[in-house]
Write a structure and sequence with these properties.
Layout: E1 17-19, E2 22-24, E3 28-30, H1 46-56, E4 62-69, E5 81-82, H2 88-104, E6 111-117, H3 139-142, H4 155-175, E7 179-182, H5 189-194, H6 207-210, H7 212-224, E8 230-236, H8 258-266, E9 271-275, H9 283-286, H10 291-307, E10 312-315, H11 325-334, E11 340-343, H12 345-349, H13 353-358, H14 373-380, H15 390-404
Helix pairs in contact: 1-2, 4-7, 14-15
């Protein structure tokens, strides 16, 4: 592990840090892990409430609330969350519930960021088959079967969608969130537009065009936000597929950080949550199952951190480290790789990880074993840890039984 920042000084994780005037009470983040357990109208369902109840009690200073669609058409499944006027009160109640539970459990008052998304090529809002909305055809994904031209989003439709981020921001503020993430990762629509080298027109080709939708969506959010409300992003800095079909990569699919750094600087983010890869195509890039992938994540995160002076960075992908995850987190903060370290799969398995990590009693028997069952559940049922959580053990058993019929 010589290529990873490691430290036994886990006390550094107790430090506060400030983003846009908001104090984040410690250096641990719960990443936006989708549960696929909302109601048909996009409201939080029973398991959604249960998950965030557990997170609220878990002690993380930053809860990066999972992907919430900005439009019905952009939902990745019929149970993905989608906030709109008719269900705003449901989200408002949940945000208040998170804060009240944290207070009742004597945990830090977490900063809560809403992740606003449009699933683009992975849209499946009505169940059944995908209803993709793509930036351009990509032969690495489509191979010999390009999608019909009607599936390529028009410039006019993109202009309309930019305004959806203003609506999402207004709703997020009303619901009591502390900020909004314009999601630009994992090959969903904003991230795919960043890699749209082969697209013609206003939103494709040179970087100025490819980042236009992202910049305009961020601008729409900032126009609504008041001081003290964070406008941020969870952003891919490396897609892991070759130019001209990927972002942050050359023709050999090797990382090239020039454009990701330029985007972060041009959009003047105060905080960026770093990610990579595509969970549908190369999941090991963003959900490592080997040490080399963890090392790549932290090396590139450090590269971006050094180039973007003053930008607060949330690092990703420590879960594979299991019992060494507290020491990687501490090292990342202590050695200036990041300001916070975010846990996704581990939070499903071990929702109290932050509280225990901060108190020096991290339980290695509760760690995620990176088996991928949570992803299987998300695509066929409701996502959670089938190994550590009996609710999802049963859901996983039922899923397998259905698949065998």
């Amino acid at each position: 592990m010589k290529n990873l920042p490691m430290s036994k000084n886990t006390d550094v994780l107790k430090q506060e840090f400030i983003v846009d005037g908001i104090t984040i009470p410690n250096r641990l983040t719960i990443q936006p892990m989708e549960g696929a357990d909302g109601t048909k109208d996009g409201s939080p369902g029973g398991l959604t409430l249960r998950r965030y109840d557990r997170f609220a009690k878990g002690g993380a200073g930053l809860i990066w609330y999972e992907a919430v669609a900005v439009e019905h058409e952009g939902r990745a499944n019929p149970h993905q969350l989608w906030m709109h006027e008719k269900n705003l009160d449901d989200f408002k109640r949940q945000v208040a519930r998170i804060r009240n539970l944290a207070k009742d459990e004597a945990q830090p008052n977490p900063v809560i960021i809403l992740q606003a998304t449009h699933s683009g090529r992975y849209s499946k809002p009505n169940g059944g088959t995908f209803e993709p909305i793509i930036a351009c055809n990509n032969p690495i994904y489509e191979k010999d079967g390009p999608l019909p031209a009607g599936r390529i989003v028009t410039d006019d439709h993109l202009r309309c969608l930019e305004e959806s981020y203003a609506t999402a921001t207004r709703l997020a503020i009303s619901a009591g969130f502390d900020g909004i993430d314009i999601k630009a990762c994992h090959r969903y629509l904003v991230g795919e537009l960043l890699s749209a080298h082969t697209r013609e027109g206003f939103y494709g080709g040179p970087l100025e065009n490819r980042m236009r939708f992202f910049a305009n969506a961020v601008g729409q959010a900032r126009a609504i936000a008041s001081p003290g409300f964070i406008v941020t992003t969870r952003m891919n800095i490396f897609d892991g597929i070759p130019y001209p079909y990927g972002f942050g990569a050359n023709e050999n699919a090797e990382p090239v950080m020039d454009e990701p750094i330029e985007v972060i600087k041009a959009l003047k983010f105060s905080m960026v949550n770093i990610s990579m890869g595509n969970p549908y195509f190369n999941p090991n890039v963003n959900r490592p199952t080997d040490l080399a992938a963890v090392e790549r994540m932290y090396s590139l995160t450090k590269h971006v951190r050094d180039a973007c002076d003053g930008v607060k960075i949330v690092a990703s992908a420590p879960t594979f480290m299991r019992g060494d995850a507290p020491y990687l987190s501490a090292g990342a903060v202590e050695q200036d790789y990041a300001d916070s370290v975010g846990f996704g799969r581990l939070a499903f398995a071990y929702p109290n990880f932050a509280k225990d990590m901060l108190n020096g009693r991290f339980d290695e028997k509760m760690v995620c074993v990176t088996c991928g069952k949570c992803t299987e559940l998300m695509r066929g049922s409701k996502a959670g840890c089938a190994v550590r959580d009996s609710v999802y053990t049963e859901l996983y058993r039922e899923l397998k039984e259905r698949q065998q019929k």
